[in-house]
Amino acid sequence: MTVTAAEANDLSWLRGQRVLVAGGRVSGQATIEPLVALGASVTVADSTLDFADRCAELGADTTVTTSSIEEDRDSITRFALVVTSPGFRPDAPILAAAAGHGIPIWGDVELSWRVDHSGLYGPPRKWLVVTGTNGKTTTTSMLASILEAAGLAGRACGNIGLPVLAALTETSPRVEYLAVELSSFQLHWAPSVRPDAGVVLNVAEDHLDWHGGMAAYAEAKARALSGKVAVVGLDDAIAAELGAAAEADIVAGFRLGVPARGELGVAEGNLVDNAFGDAVQLAEAADIDPPGPAGVMDALAAAALARAVGLGADAVRAGLTAHKVGPHRGAVVGDVGSVRYVDDSKATNPHAARPSILAHDRVVWVAGGLLKGASVDALVTEVRSRLAGVVLLGRDAGDIEQALSRHAPEVPVVRVVTGDDAKVSENHSSSTRVIRLPSGSDADAVMTAVVREAATMASPGSAVVLAPAAASLDMFDSYGHRGDSFAAAVGALSGPPGSANKAGIAE
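RE: above sequence
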């Protein structure tokens, strides 16, 4: 029997049913009120009960620990549906138990889509979905700026910070256009989403530990292309392949070069739409923030989504011109002794770190954290001629160190560790200088030592670039905390390059 879209989005069956929400933090909390409004009885499961009071205020009946369900896996049969936060992997015990008993599992974005199309909050919105390994947040912010310039009630939401469900409940004014940033995790758990227009910016190694491999990661990204209009970055081989296989009514691409028919691109210094118009000039490349190829590519993607739903060139131009890049995305945080210090803490994978390093002729690279299964060998090979030195920190610093040893042995490397890291003396290269801080040193103390070491390696006219190529959560609360820590350490520097005091003991 064929199920129509209306039947699939009819959520009346949830009335009187018990629903388990896996994850009691921001995205999980956002699911409670609509589930209660649909008549469901909600139980929230989280690793701790720290969020129990807030979940109860929102209407949850109970909050339990995930371990309590994992210990009694048959208890999952009490629930008709599990709604999961994106951080839970498919093989998480609580989800494996649900799958084993045939209980449907929806992500918070899947629930958002179904709620929006159920009519609970009025007519469905227009969904403009942005995904890719890098550039998602910048592109989504640019798109929101274009929507604002067009005088439309739009909202940036999803992975950018505001849950989609929270955007759906806004009434002053009612949101009509959703600029939705979606991670591969969110897309994995959202098979029903069919956006009015969706873009895959690029696809590079990232989150392979979560997805189990590159094919599954790319497959998740491709779900953004399942709606009416699919847009892909043509200068990225994998994204272009996903576009060629997309079954959307319209498939368009964007590139840094002159656009062919069906593409957006750059001609004579202007962003040009040759897909939703006939060589329509949209904006000057020189007016795009952030400057450089990566920023222009993000602007083309945002413009493509806006043009796909009928927005005019004037709105696109005004929105892109008004947009200013957010913090931790290539922001200059200081100039000390003719050395520029750049915070690109948002560069949480090797693909994202690449443009930040290549933007400067001579770089002291600050890197390290959680690589999430990604390899840095290709990045090191490409940027080695620009490296004046590298300072490493974080759990997977050893992997980056080994790549440098293989592909850039002439580049000086410093690794900052604490006395708590018993394995570092075994794992570091013989040519690496190790700075060991006292046991118990916090992340900010490590970053202070890192910046001091970077300052000693820098020369006038060079740049010290925090482009970690790795996630932050091994040491810091977030990439924002990491970037703020870097900026604070830069602010504490004094004197010309080379004058900073050494921190710790060199081995």
